[in-house]
Amino acid sequence: GGQPRNVQPFSDEDASIETMSHCSGFSDPASFTEDGPEVDEEATQEDLEYKLKGFIDLTLDKSAKTRQAALESLKSAFSSKILYEFIMERRMTLTDSIERCIKKGKSDEQCAAAGLACLLCVQMGSGIESEEIFKTLGPVLKKIVCDGTASIQARQACATCLGICCFIVTDDITELYSTMECLENIFTKAYQRDRDTNGVSSTHNTVLHVSALLAWTLLLTICPMNEVKKKIEVHLHKLPSLLSCDDLNMRIAAGETLALLFELARETDADFFYEDMDLLTEKLRALATDGNKHRAKVDKRKQRSVFRDVLRAVEERDFPTEMVKFGPERMYIDCWVKKQTYDTFKEILGSGMQYHLQSNDFLRNVFELGPPVMLDAATLKTMKISRFERHLYNSAAFKARTKARSKCRDKRADVGEFF
């Protein structure tokens, strides 16, 4: 029966301090995979789930800083671990939290919530539960994407999320076409600007157009061939105009989309003929050998590398095969459709991509990898290299590189040929 005391309002400063103490363990995805002494896996899992429950509760906090930090922590966990059973039990709570944050939050919070929605669908894979999530979040995402008053960053994040979630979830062809139409209405505005100004100028909307174009291209890879033909007829003659954009990312997105469209067109028709091939290859060759001094060296290197591959795809129907290693397995990326899909999920999962390729049933199905390879603890232990061994290997490699470079840099070597 003591005297009632005045309760101070919960300030943003208090929230940020509290959140930092809760979220510090998830600030870096690498914290999940640190080498260390063997621990009780069951206890570790329980501790992880306890923390995640706390983060889910914090997504409903009054403080925007707290909500955003909780969303980021959940993103880090979802990209680094397979948490299917944990999420299955709480999928509706998570969906409601994401929906509320996208609807009522500011730009950064909306971006974090959209990113978490992507990872939620990646974890759940394709199924009835994921369809329920998309039925709730799909209309909200479309509304933000089409809302001219919303921040560009939020619209960009929602456009990416809309494309990825639709790719994972939908079996409904009308929903697929509706989502593609929504994204088309965004990036085709870049065509309009090109007609108005005789050359696409860089504006703050360009990042939104790039995200919408890439999300649309991802969905095009799962369309029926008759629909693919229609889209090629509409866009193949318009996309080259975006190669003149001031923004590097837009030029690269347009170039890679063109390569993918040519690949799909030739799959449907081996004798596919493009009328303006000479003009297009001339543009692509100019970008593949661009030496403009007003552009940064890093940008020029990146652009030349991408457009050399695009030019080979358009002219010679060739694709430079890439190999991706994850655990004891290897995956070969041997076409533009596969490259587009891989790049999209790598952007979302970051450093967790290799882990998900090993363990995530949905991703393994997308890339036709079969069921996860089951290795016993003894086999895994023999495959794992200790920190000390890694250090010795890196030191030896460093010494060898230094020795080889020193010979090449020796000022006394081949002096005579300069005179």
TrEMBL record:
Ranges where the Interferon-related developmental regulator N-terminal domain occurs: 19-315
Record-level GO cellular component terms: nucleus
Domain Interferon-related developmental regulator C-terminal residue range list: 360-413
Coiled-coil residues: none
InterPro entries with a match to the protein in the record: ARM-like, ARM-type_fold, IFRD, Interferon-rel_develop_reg_C, Interferon-rel_develop_reg_N
Membrane-spanning residues: none
SUPFAM superfamilies for this protein: ARM repeat
Sorted UniProt keywords: Developmental protein, Differentiation
A Gene Ontology BP annotation from the UniProt entry: cell differentiation
Taxonomic superkingdom: Eukaryota
Record flagged with keyword Electron transport: no
Subunit details: Interacts with PSIP1/LEDGF.
Family: Belongs to the IFRD family.
Protein name: Interferon-related developmental regulator 1
Organism: Dicrurus megarhynchus
Lineage, top ranks: Eukaryota, Metazoa, Chordata, Craniata, Vertebrata
Primary gene name: Ifrd1
